[in-house]
Design goal:
Layout lengths: L6 H11 L8 E6 L5 E6 L5 E6 L12 H11 L9 E5 L2 H4 L3 E5 L9 H4 L4 H19 L17 H16 L5 H12 L8 E3 L8 E4 L2 E5 L6 E3 L2 H10 L21 H12 L6 H24 L10 H19 L1
Length: about 325
C-alpha cells in the first residue's frame, strides 16, 4: 500500500475516467514534503501518469486547492508554456479522502541540486537557461482572457497586496529584532513602482520546479502559488535564485556550476521578448528577498517553539539566512 492512495477506489475511478487504462495500477510517491503530494502510477500496458493530491493530515483547503491547480494547468496548456496535459479531476472525497487530479507524466530530470545539472553538457546548460527565460516571457505575454484565466484572481495592486500579507506574517511570527527587515519594508513601500498591466504570475519560478530534457524545459511544475498580477515579481525571484559562479550561493545553487546564461543575458532577452522594461528590477529582487525572509521567519518560529516535533533543525543557520535575505533587500533598495 502507498500512503495517501486508496488504491482500489482510486484505480476504479480512474478506469472510468481515463480511456484504455489497464488495471491494476502501480503507484509510487515521487514528491512529498509539506506541499502537495505527487505520485506516479503505471498501468499494465506501461502507460505512466501522475496524480496530485494535498498533503496528509490537517490541511487548509485554500492552500491546497486541487481544482484551482487543475484549472490553471489545463488553461496554461493552451499556451506555448510547456505543462503536462491534464486528464481528470476528482472532487469526490469519498474516493481518496481529498480531491486529486491526474496529468500526463513528462520525462526529464529535476534540477534540485548542482550535482543534477552537472549531468548536462555546457551546450545543454546554455540551451536550457535560454529556454527558461523564453518560457517566462511566453507565460507573461499569454492572453489570460483567451485561455480562460481572466477571473482567476485580483489583477491590481499585486505588490501592495503581497506586502500587506507578508507583513502580517512577519509580525505574527517575529522572534528577534531585525532592523534590516523593518528598513527594507519601509523602502519597499516608499519605492513601490506602478504596476503596468497584469499577467499570470507563477509565484515559484525557479529551476527546481522544472523538468529538463534534451537541453530544454520539458515541463513547468508546481503551480500552487500561481495568481494574476505584476509579472516582474517572477523575474526578480528567478534572478535571485539564478546563481553565477563566484556568487556566495554558487556552491549550493543549481546554476552556480556555470555554463548558463548570465543574469544580464536573461534580463536582455526578457525585455526584448516582452517589451517590458526591467529598469526597476532591483526593487523586485529586493521584494523577493524580503518576502522569502518573512516566509522563513514563520518556519523558524514553528521550529523554535517545538511545533514541528523533534525534527533536526539548525536554528542558528536558519536565522542567519533570514538576516542575509533582509540585508540583501536593503542593499538592493539603497
Amino acid at each position: 500500500m502507498v500512503e495517501g492512495i486508496r488504491e482500489e477506489a482510486v484505480s476504479n475511478w480512474l478506469a472510468n475516467e481515463i480511456e484504455d487504462l489497464a488495471l491494476p495500477l502501480e503507484f509510487e510517491l515521487i514528491a512529498g514534503g509539506h506541499s502537495n503530494l505527487t505520485y506516479r502510477f503505471v498501468d499494465q500496458n506501461g502507460r505512466a501518469l501522475v496524480l496530485r493530491r494535498p498533503p496528509l493530515g490537517h490541511i487548509l483547503e485554500s492552500a491546497h486547492d486541487m481544482s484551482r491547480e487543475h484549472r490553471i494547468i489545463s488553461a496554461v496548456g493552451k499556451s506555448n508554456v510547456p505543462v503536462p496535459k491534464t486528464h481528470a479531476l476528482c472532487e469526490d472525497k469519498s474516493i481518496n479522502d481529498q480531491p486529486f487530479y491526474v496529468m500526463e507524466f513528462i520525462e526529464g530530470i529535476v534540477p534540485h541540486t548542482p550535482e543534477v545539472l552537472e549531468q548536462l553538457s555546457d551546450e545543454d546548460r546554455r540551451s536550457f537557461g535560454l529556454h527558461v527565460i523564453e518560457v517566462l516571457a511566453d507565460l507573461h505575454t499569454t492572453d489570460i482572457e483567451a485561455i480562460g484565466l481572466g477571473q482567476l484572481a485580483k489583477k491590481e495592486d499585486y505588490l501592495g497586496r503581497q506586502l500587506k500579507r507578508w507583513t502580517q506574517q512577519w509580525l505574527a511570527t517575529k522572534t528577534d529584532e531585525i532592523p534590516d527587515m523593518d528598513r527594507s519594508l519601509e523602502l519597499l513601500h516608499e519605492k513601490q513602482p506602478d504596476q503596468i498591466g497584469a499577467t499570470i504570475v507563477h509565484g515559484d519560478y525557479r529551476v527546481g520546479n522544472m523538468l529538463i530534457k534534451d537541453g530544454k524545459m520539458s515541463a513547468l511544475l508546481d503551480w500552487e502559488l500561481c495568481t494574476l498580477g505584476d509579472p516582474l515579481a517572477d523575474v526578480g525571484y528567478l534572478l535571485n535564485t539564478w546563481a553565477e559562479p563566484g556568487d556566495p550561493s554558487s556552491d549550493t545553487a543549481p546554476t552556480g556550476i556555470g555554463g548558463f546564461p548570465t543574469r544580464q543575458e536573461l534580463c536582455d532577452i526578457y525585455e526584448e521578448r516582452t517589451g517590458r522594461s526591467l529598469a526597476e528590477i532591483n526593487y523586485y529582487r529586493a521584494f523577493s528577498h524580503w518576502r522569502l525572509a518573512a516566509i522563513s521567519q514563520g518556519v523558524y518560529k514553528r521550529y523554535s517553539v517545538g511545533a514541528m516535533g523533534h525534527q533536526e533543525f539548525d536554528l542558528d543557520k536558519y536565522m542567519a539566512s533570514i538576516l542575509s535575505k533582509a540585508k540583501a533587500a536593503v542593499k538592493l533598495l539603497s
